[in-house]
Amino acid sequence: MSHECVCARQLACHTMPMGRVSFYGVTTTGIFCRCGCPSRTPTPEHVVFFGHVNDAIERGFRSCKRCRPDQEVSPHEAFGAFVVTQVVALAQATPQSRIEDIARGLALSKRQLERIIKAVTGLSPRQYIHSALQATQ
To answer: Keyword Coiled coil: yes or no (predicted)?
Structure first.
């Protein structure tokens, strides 16, 4: 399967490519995104794929304000990393707190916290907090 076919499939499914970051530009808007951007899926005939950010900029595309492909880490990934570090900090500060209390302290719902922790670490919040507290002792 060609690289463009793989990128088109990832674009349609809003998934990130394995091992490398790919970018796509939409010719009708002049905007380029990371593959995996949660923005609306463009019409395939208006899509151009790039291997690097500079390729898109040289062709006159501007970066998406949602996925920020011109930055090293996407806002979504940065927020996930922030939440994970804050969960550990809150759990250390108040060891007897429940998951609901930690979520409330981060201004998130319990379900949002569970989804973020699971996506970043692969563990449930309770499992992650337990392993993180074990590692610091």
So the answer is: no
